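> Could you send the b(0,+)-type amino acid transporter 1 prediction when you get a chance?

Sure thing. Input:
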Amino acid sequence: INAEVLRARPERNQKMLQIEPERNKRTSELKLKQELGLISAVCLIAGTMVGSGIFMSPEWLLRYMGSPGGSLLIWAACGVIALLGALCYAELGTIIKESGGEYIYILRLVGPVPAFVFAYTSVMVLRPASTTILLSFAKYVAAPFYPGCSPPQIVIKCIAASCILVLVTINSLNVKLALSIQNVFTAAKLSALLTIVIGGLVLLVKGHTTVFQNAFQGTDTNFGSAGMAFYQGLWAYSGWNTLSNVTEELKHPEVNFLRAILIAVPLVTFLYLLVNVSYFTAMTPAEIISGAAAVTWGNKVLGSWAWLMPLSVAVSTFGGVNASLFTGGRTCYVAAREGHMPEILSMIHVRHLTPSPAIIYSSVISLIVIIPGNFGTLVNLCSFTGWLFHGLTLAGLLYTKNFKKVDFRRMLNEVTILIPIVLFIAAIGLMLAPVISSPRVEYLYVAIFVLSGVVVHAFFIHFKLCPGLLRKLTLFLQLLLEVSPTHKTEN
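Output:
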């Protein structure tokens, strides 16, 4: 295709395909730059984890568990699961130094068909669905202009779409700028959580401890309820696997991968626990269950500064979507590089060195997803599939450690093998919990959609239908977007 591009526009494209010497001194081939240092890696993980979940999940955990003590235990257990899962992924990252997260791990350890099914589900549903939380951001932004009533849906959707366009432009043009924005928003989110923590500590000192006197009274020990509580809690922790999507852009991954995880995940877990303690010191369980816990907390504790809480929710949402676009584009890019997506998505911009086609494609799907407005139901139904692929990744890790002669770095020494075993069992339980607790026919529809990936793989990957059309489209888009195939560093 590059040869055809040069023949089509020889003067322009010869210049377009030249690589600046200082950008790649050792090779004349394009590849992503290693821009992620330790601080940026920590901010990327924490920024992805701290989204709208910490402001929305507390009411659901309390509703399912029935007591403050039971709720706090679930929050702590979810943090432990997130940390152990991240450590398993860090171990995989020491031998598979490629971007792509679960996709590349499933591809290398399990096989191409399951990997394609993951990429298909992730690119078409899971990643775009994560950007729908921008509707919450847009609602908070529009609210001051519509006092006394709810903003029109068309206004909310236009604001959300504008935010996606701004973020996709930034992520397509400059990796450093995208990471700088992520660092700033992560700092703002952590500051907001610290504000809630400090307010709670002040109330504790003043003796607001009534709710903790019978903390476990009324705890629901039903398996289904506990499973759904874990489900909601782990949604707030989603993002612990973020760094595995950008391994190739991480500086010194053999060191910084583990360090970033050991800093970010425990930090977020500690803050989440203290934030929930603060909620319980300021509000009764009934007030928390009524919804909008952070806003209610702000009205009761901050007084005239209560507007900081809606702003914090908006900032958390915006920063989370920026991280989702940054990492989601890399998954699509790696899948295309392995031949599981159209070739154009495996190319990067010749000057900016960003996977702009993959980022643009992900944003287009996200814009389509925003239109219906009621996609939240589908998000809840599809989220459990994430644990299906986590379990598949862990199964591949266990198989490789026991039956393949691979020199794994023993970061956790003798107990390493127990961690993926426990997490694999937990993944199965978390995948089945919503089905057992509240069986719905919609879960069957989700399963059919996931399995349809096998049919799509057969038609477009195995039998390679419509190659001529895709070739012409790739040539056109390569000229339009000024992109070129990349060189993958061998590891």
